[in-house]
Amino acid sequence: AFNAGNTIGYVNDIKDTTVTGGRSSYPIFELHLSLHTFELHHGAKKFKKMILQLLENAEFLVEQLSKVIERTYIKYNKKQFNVIFPLPNKIEQAVALKEKYTLMPLPNQCACISVFPNVDKPLIEEFVHDYSNAIRGEEESDVDKHESYRPICRL
Description:
Blueprint: E1 7-8, E2 14-15, H1 26-37, H2 44-66, E3 82-86, H3 91-101, E4 104-106, E5 110-114, H4 121-141
Antiparallel strand pairs: 1-2, 3-5, 4-5
């Protein structure tokens, strides 16, 4: 059952001791579970519709964020589900947003939102509203500066 004599060339010829003589099958089980969870196992039509909706929601997020901060501070590549943007400069506000929306923290005071199937337009609008309030709060508390929001995030 075990292929103890086989070696795997692309990982310095280590001995293959898996039962099937290949890679772990766990990712296949995860894919199978995901397809059945979202009822996408009957064909590609529903899967394609979901992907198009995710891409539309990611673009909607970028459009909404662009109303709050300059577009140059937002990193987004079409046909991807991730949107990277600066967090508020004040740590308390940044932490509150990260915790409430489970944002992926990135270096340099940035964060990433991955637009998953549970992220819909009302949730995006709620997030952008909270994000806008956090940034406006910074501008209002920094009366001495008399300048618009300048994130410390470097993209």
